[in-house]
Amino acid sequence: MSMSNFDKNKTEQAQPSLTNQAWGGRFNEPVDEFVARFTASVDFDQRLYRQDIQGSIAHAQMLTQANVLSTDERDQIIDGLQAIAAEIEAGTFDWSVGLEDVHMNIEAALTARIGNVGKKLHTGRSRNDQVATDIRLWLRDQIDMLKPLFTKLQQGMIELAAAESDTIMPGFTHLQTAQPVTFGHHLLAWNEMLERDFSRLNDCRARLNQSPLGAAALAGTTYPIDREFTAAQMGFDKPTENSLDSVSDRDFAIEFCAFASILMTHMSRMSEELVLWTSAQFQFISLPDRFCTGSSIMPQKKNPDVPELVRGKTGRVTGHLIALLTLMKSQPLAYNKDNQEDKEPLFDAVDTVRDCLRAFGDMIPAIESNKSSMYEAARRGFSTATDLADYLVGKGIAFRDSHEIVGKSVAYGVAENKDLSEMSLEELQQFSDHISADVFDVLTLEGSVAARNHIGGTAPMQVRAAASRALAQLACR
Ligand code: ARG
User: Fold this and answer.
1) C-alpha to C-alpha distance for 321 and 218, rounded to whole angstroms
2) Beta-carbon neighbour count of residue 441 at 10 Å?
3) What CATH number corresponds to the domain at position 119?
4) In this predicted structure, what is the pLDDT of residue 3?
5) Lowest mean pLDDT among 75-84, 181-190, 293-302
6) 409 given a catalytic annotation
7) Comparing 154-158, 207-211, 307-311, 438-442, which segment has the lowest mean pLDDT?
8) Does residue 49 sit in the same domain as residue 76?
9) How far, in whole angstroms, is CA 240 from its chain's centroid?
10) Which phi and psi angles does 175 have, rounded to 5°?
11) Atom 11, ligand 1: residue with shortest CA distance
């Protein structure tokens, strides 16, 4: 918003109207210039223009059926609104801070364009139900734009998991080597997080898809409006139940930010692992150069900027959730101007999630695994110790005793710098005479992962089956 727009508008309005024409009737002096700027939202809520016009067209159609507008008046209004939409899209619309918000900017432009008929559009509605309608429509459109980004990312992730179903890597608890797993299994763990996030997004969409239009300022309106009609026109499932709640409710924005915060938390966990895995210490994977940047001083550096930034952006989205919860806390019914503060956090949460999903959708399928260093790392950490303990249980030893025997074998391996699978049969038999040559079937990494052969286990054949189930699920969306 340029200064000159604001000043021009203020001059125009100083005479004959004392202040904003939409509500200036009972005022004796113009609104303070700073206050006008402070209370305006047009700089950011102009983003709602398309939904504002969509809602106004539905409202005008309904007013015609209710005999408040003639069909000719309706057509003038709809043509005018469509011309305004085109102007906004062409970038030639003159937004004015003096007109406060997107709603009054468009209404004023309509009246300037078609004359007094434009002034009839606001019959039986208020900016309170108007803005509540606009944000729901906008968020619904944004959710529908996010869904394919989700599906693309999950598809790439699941396909990579299937391709990496035999790749062995260390699985960690406490970031210490625990048991061998397959890389495909690890990637499918990530996909589970995203699958739940997607279903939370769907829940949010289903709950928000009700029309507040007709609640008017807070109590409803005296005109014979048809809320079912406007709801259907705008693709809502039904009108909201209670006018007071309709104009004040922002749960849907909070719910979206809760979904977004959980998704970002998940992507930050993935990012953290990607950053670790690309390091010289792990060397589990590499990311193509196009997702990394260099250092201006250290020529050898290839930094995983994309996952680092996604991890960093998690903070701002969680911040927006807290901002909205705090915004709504203790607000009395019905509408309060506080609610104007709902938009910027919501807009930024949507933009951030969109960009992060897009970046991940491009980057994840491009991960290149370094199979030999994953395998070596799994071998180094006595990752098949549990398999040896389970083997001894199979030979009739109680688990607690077998745990003790394996503990001693590991201590020996640490002293001798040998993995369990590298010890000779004689070396292993020092710790238990129940150990025989078949022990090597379970001490290998391949034997260890293949043995976890049940739904949800890390065995390669289970990972392949899980990947096909996950892909089939995506296809049903
Ligand atoms: N710009 C306002 C908002 O975003 C629109 C509703 C204003 N209503 C009012 N009674 N002042 O919430």
Assistant:
1) 26
2) 14
3) 1.10.275.10
4) 40
5) 293-302
6) no
7) 438-442
8) yes
9) 25
10) 55, 20
11) 337
Average pLDDT, the chain: 94
Domain count, the chain: 3
Active site residue 271: no
Q: Which of 70, 199, 295, 468 is catalytic?
A: 295
| 98's tokens | 């003096």
For 286, the enclosing helix (H) or strand (E) is strand 285-286
Distances, alpha carbon 72 to alpha carbons 68, 116, 274, in Å: 12, 13, 62
The amino acid occupying position 104 is: M
- Name which of 136, 102, 108 is nearest 121 in CA terms: 108
Q: Is residue 470 part of a domain?
A: yes
Are residues 43 and 340 in contact, defined by beta-carbon separation less than 8 angstroms? no
Could you tell me if 132 and 258 lie in one domain? yes
Residue where one domain finishes, among candidates 335, 355, 375: 375
Question: What pLDDT, on a 0 to 100 scale, did the predictor assign at position 385?
Answer: 93
Q: What is the DSSP string of 123-183?
A: TT--HHHHHHHHHHHHHHHHHHHHHHHHHHHHHHHHHHHHHTTT-EEEEEETTEEEEEEEH
- Provide the 10 A C-beta neighbour count for residue 180: 27
Helix (H, G, I), strand (E, B) or coil at 103: helix
Q: CA triplet 424, 427, 430: central angle to 5 degrees? A: 150
Neighbours of 115 (CB within 10 A): 11
Answer yes or no: do 247 and 291 share one domain. Answer: yes
Ligand 1 pocket mutation, candidates 31, 95, 127, criterion most atoms within 8 A of CB: 127
Say if 76 falls within a structural domain. Answer: yes
Give the whole-angstrom CA distance, residue 372 versus residue 369.
9
Q: From the CA of 11, how far away is ligand 1's center (Å)? A: 23
Alpha carbon distances (Å) from 104 to 42, 162, 209: 9, 54, 25
The reply to whether 426 and 408 lie within a common domain is yes
Any atom of ligand 1 within 6 Å of the Cβ of 130: no
Question: CB neighbours (10 Å) of residue 282?
Answer: 17
For 406-444, write each residue's pLDDT tens digit.
999 999 999 999 989 889 999 999 999 999 999 998 899
Query: Tell me, what CATH number does 455's domain have?
Result: 1.10.40.30
Q: What is the pLDDT of residue 23?
A: 78
Query: What is d(CA 23, CA 14) in angstroms, rounded to the nearest whole number?
Result: 14
Backbone φ and ψ for 180, nearest 5 degrees, come out as: -70, 145
Do 305 and 430 fall within a single domain? no
Cα separation, 401 vs 417, in Å, equals 24
Q: Whose CA is nearest to atom 2 of ligand 1?
A: 340
Note down the domain range covering 70: 24-123
Query: Is any ligand 1 atom within 6 A of the Cβ of residue 131?
Result: yes
Q: Residue 469: pLDDT above 60?
A: yes
From the list 2, 4, 174, 454, the catalytic residue is: 174
Q: Are residues 366 and 380 in the same domain?
A: no
**Residue 7 falls inside a structural domain:** no
Look up the CATH number of the domain holding residue 299.
1.20.200.10
